[in-house]
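Task: sequence design from structure.
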């Protein structure tokens, strides 16, 4: 037997082989990515970039409302914008792309961390902007989004109001 003992650690000729096999198996195992559907804040583009008409025409409750700037998203297929109504209550206008693999009802529930109540729901087409960026690339002088592809697409959207608690 070919054994080497170092500080009470016994290593034989099979140990490096087993470790190599474990590392190789871990490296070859595919990683299943889950869609990113957490709530994030900081959306800068307003609904005027999505809809061809004023939000007050789409959701009449917003006819004389004031934007609060508390904008965010739940995943990449749903965005929401904060508004203050004339009666001083705060609501969120949301727009969710109606795709086969997107559960809009689940995402609407994540707009308000402490829960909320949906006030209105309509269906409206809208323009959604997609930006796909690669992690490594070459940037030319003046590139605002180097290594990114930027395109717009029209979708059927579920649009509505959510009032948080």
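Answer:
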């Amino acid at each position: 037997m070919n054994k080497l003992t170092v500080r009470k650690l016994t290593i034989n000729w099979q140990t490096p082989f087993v470790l190599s096999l474990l590392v190789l198996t871990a490296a070859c195992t595919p990683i299943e990515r889950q869609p990113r559907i957490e709530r994030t804040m900081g959306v800068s583009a307003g609904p005027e970039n999505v809809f061809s008409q004023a939000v007050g025409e789409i959701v009449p409750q917003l006819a004389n409302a004031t934007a609060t700037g508390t904008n965010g998203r739940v995943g990449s297929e749903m965005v929401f914008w904060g508004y203050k109504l004339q009666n001083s209550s705060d609501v969120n206008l949301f727009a969710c792309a109606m795709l086969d693999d997107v559960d809009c009802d689940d995402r609407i529930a994540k707009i308000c961390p402490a829960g909320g109540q949906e006030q209105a729901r309509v269906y409206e087409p809208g323009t959604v902007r997609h930006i796909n960026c690669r992690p490594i690339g070459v940037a030319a002088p003046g590139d605002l989004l180097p290594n990114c592809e930027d395109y717009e697409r029209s979708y059927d959207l579920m649009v509505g109001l959510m009032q948080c608690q």
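Residues 39-135+146-164 form one domain.
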